[in-house]
Amino acid sequence: MKKFFLPIVVILLIFSGCQTSSQKPKYVFLFIGDGMGMSHVQLAKLYSDSVLKKDNSISFLNFPVASNSTTYAANRFITGSAAAGTALSTGYKTSINTLGLSSDHSDTLYSIAKRFNENGRKVALITSVSIDHATPAAFYAHVPYRGMYYKIATQLFKSDYDFFASGGFRDPYNYMQDSSSISIFELGDKNGYNFTTTLEGVDSLVSSGAKHIIYSVSNPAPGSTLKYDIDRVSTDVTLADLTRKAIEVVDNPNGFFMMVEGGKIDWAAHDNDAATVIYEVLAFSDAVSEAVDFYKKHPDETIIIVTADHETGGLSIGNRENHYDNHVALLQYQKVSKEKLHEIINDYLNKNNKPRFDELLNIISNKTGLNKEIALSSAEIAILKESFNKMVQAKNFSQKTLYSETDLLTSNVLKLLNSKAGIGWTSGSHTAEPVPVFVIGEGHESFMNQLDNTDIPKRIAEISGI
């Protein structure tokens, strides 16, 4: 029998080809679509493909890893943003409303952002809501209750992170507890943190050698947030703008960690506002595209993880009224968010001593297409008129919701539009649905199987060598 021996060089080549890369990513992006379930993503894609006629508009759907993650909290199956944010930032479950602490508040939990910072990597936290909101706060704060906005903001100054960008602060003067407190801005100045409300100001601070920069939009929407993308005008800053600027600020040879949150996907889903959800997911995808552009320049040194903290709204593409039919294209006639439509209706009612339903219905038609491009039956018009009459009689033009305000008429307008478009909602809150996980870049193989949210930061730390 003859014996055959492969040359040692060939053997080594075969062996090396079977191994995964030992390269550790220096540049780590973690994108969190707050409240973004798979249905939210698919709805945005369906709308973009059929209405906007844009191919590949959802950048992360082409990533080589498409998995999913469970999201439950330590003490509740349906999680909240604080508990989920802590799981995504630290790798440990905690209780509802808790940030950066164990479920019984006895131990402090530290985030991967802190570990990157301690390993000499720069850190940036970006969000479309306020920087002291639950998800971004989970990467630097340790409080028993997420509503402690002022205390959360004071802990930001202990983080030593490099760049923050958001809609601003929810309670910078501590009006909720003690208005005599030192303001966040004065406290930040004393701790070497520099504030600006322009992107040009960010550039100037970088040029001057500032180590810690906090950017807030100059014209925030309610709740100290970026405007909903559906309400945005050309001069408004987008999440993609902030992501691009953050990359410019923290790009360096040692690497960085960047968390980017699309926070108002969740807000729109709480409002059961499908058209606004679509535009928030597309804006989030545009931000991811900025990271993809960076990845293309550093493919062997970069990883991008896109996920969500939980699903909001129990969104379905399909409902009882339409059976197997779907009419997502009808959502193109909605020109403003539910929040903005309420403002318009509220303004009309407050300015008219004798408001007329036909006048208000015309305004609603121009903003939503109802009774214009989208036909309404006499019964449906009667529902809206009854809502109008109840509001006028009660002189109650506003109802508080979780993150904004609405009214009975606005709520029924959106219910009608969503119903006709074939969109279903099971909840105005969160659900326990698994959320998607998309990954591209060095080390993406670590995310290919079924995940829990606590696995994500652990695997980021492992592949990054921190």
From TrEMBL:
Zn(2+) binds at residues 34, 266, 270, 309-310, 430. It comes from the Bacteria. GO terms for molecular function: alkaline phosphatase activity; metal ion binding. The keyword Metal-binding applies. InterPro entries: Alkaline_phosphatase, Alkaline_phosphatase_core_sf. Mg(2+) binds at residues 34, 133, 135, 261. Binds 1 Mg(2+) ion. Keywords: Magnesium, Metal-binding, Phosphoprotein, Zinc. Its cofactor is Mg(2+); Zn(2+). The keyword NADP does not apply. The active site is at 81 (phosphoserine intermediate). Pfam families: Alk_phosphatase. SUPFAM superfamilies: Alkaline phosphatase-like. Belongs to the alkaline phosphatase family. This is Alkaline phosphatase. It comes from Tenuifilum thalassicum. The lineage of its organism: Bacteria, Pseudomonadati, Bacteroidota, Bacteroidia, Bacteroidales.
